[in-house]
């Protein structure tokens, strides 16, 4: 006897009856069971059709959704997280379930592979990393299901192949986020899908390490979020230049860790995108022109080209005036050496490690307005080729500490890595008067030259930069609050 757990109701092949026959609502559903449970006309499995149904053998009104699953041991249970109601399921071992709503569970007497067909009110499947996701062997047929969502549908189905020759009905689907996330064996041809209603493709192929199929003809004009879409899709290298991405606002980590991707994207309209953080991080082969992009809406370019080891394309035409974060933007981008001195970086607040280990970079940056930057830690650290003069830069810091106690006559020092670039020689001076008379700048450090008041720890010091002004108001002077600690 093959039985399913609640809420599924099963055909009892030995007794020749449904455990709850009243749940079999339609002739079409029964005809479906004829076709897919291994019996002929008027039979389900090895059992005769109970006379009270009085239904003639016929083709079903709806083609089922068919998948193949594998069990490894006797009496092993398969759980399929379905969404829907009034479903009929043929489990592929002679057992059928009717009146199924939501999650379906079935125990297989013997190990093997089983074709599971779902008919009726199916709306979605959401494996979403379920423990049984790895038991899914293949998608064989989409059927006539009017799918409602594909969010996390096959996430974690690491062993899933693709044998379907039809396409799913996606007319109601807006969410494809994480659809094939972690489906490491998946490499199906899905190029004919109609994705025109989809708005969310977040992490759709994330860690789908075998996937490398054409998608260039997809209609993605409604999609607003593509962040992480090909994250660590380590085989992917297909054309995407036909895509209309004009509605997309988020491309965070879109090609993060795609070592083979190197396709043109210059036709893309990215004017709505606000985040390109980590977009090509680790895309070590990527080296395509991007100078036609309108990036005027982007606010975050942090790590955008970090470790994009091959990239060396002109970017001087970019309007980056809205960007506030350029943290690690070209870090470890060892080939990049393009002029970007004309960029308006006046809104940027963080340039931490921006050119860290960008070994080829050696372009003028002295005209940049860095007045809003509060952190330049390791900005040009190990940028071995860089030897440009940045003496015109002035970076104000709000607070600083001297690492010596208030001992009369002792000279204290303060590290000013956030204010002055290590290895550079900008010209900065202490402006005489008031507290400033107690300090001077030498070699990029603020030095306390005379003893301070015994009852004071905080001093206001005015510093100024010589050379060309980089400020609209022409004011090169700023104050620093120096705190004595020890």
Tell me about the largest β-sheet. Answer: 8 strands, mixed
Number of helices: 1
Query: What overall form do the CA principal axes indicate?
Result: elongated
Query: Whole-number average pLDDT?
Result: 81
User: What is the H/E order?
Assistant: EEHEEEEEEEEEEEEEEEEE
Q: What do you see in this structure?
A:
The chain is built from one helix and 19 strands. The protein has one helix at residues 27-36, and strands at residues 9-12, 17-18, 43-44, 47-48, 65-71, 76-80, 82-90, 96-100, 104-108, 112-125, 136-141, 161-162, 399-402, 412-414, 428-430, 439-442, 445-448, 458-465, 477-484. It has an eight-stranded mixed sheet, with helices on one face. A four-stranded mixed sheet has the order 13-19-18-15, with no helix packed on it. Strands 14-17-16 form a three-stranded antiparallel sheet, with no helix packed on it. Strand 1 and strand 2 (17-18) form a beta hairpin. The longest helix is centred in the N-terminal third of the chain and has 10 residues, at 27-36. It is elongated. The termini are far apart. The model is unreliable at 1-28, 36-60, 396-426 and 467-475 (pLDDT under 50).
